[in-house]
Amino acid sequence: QLQASGGGLVQPGGSLRLSCAASGSLRDISAMGWYRQTPGKQREFVAAITAGGATSYVDSVKGRFTISRDVAKNTVYLQMNSLKPEDTALYYCNRANYYSAYGWRAYEDDSWGQGTQVTVSS
To answer: Nearest-CA neighbor of 4 among 24, 16, 21?
Structure first.
């Protein structure tokens, strides 16, 4: 079970750090990801981190967002800097898998938590 937290209301240019607490050990998971969804749109991949620490990002957040993990705390983080109004979304964490045809995606059968709302607005 995964619980995302840390969202909130922030002005453009501001920062937030999201946390994703796993009930089990991250050592058992090959890759973790952050995803986001806005009303009327499909959930999209934002960032992933592998068990080896390799990271990957969607182009729109490169250079602004950083994904990291603390295995001892079974927690994955998403540091979001220079936030823009278009980053406004409900953010989720989940396992991630790399598909050669599609790139990073969540496993189709994995369930989703409630997510955490990020709103970037002046």
So the answer is: 21
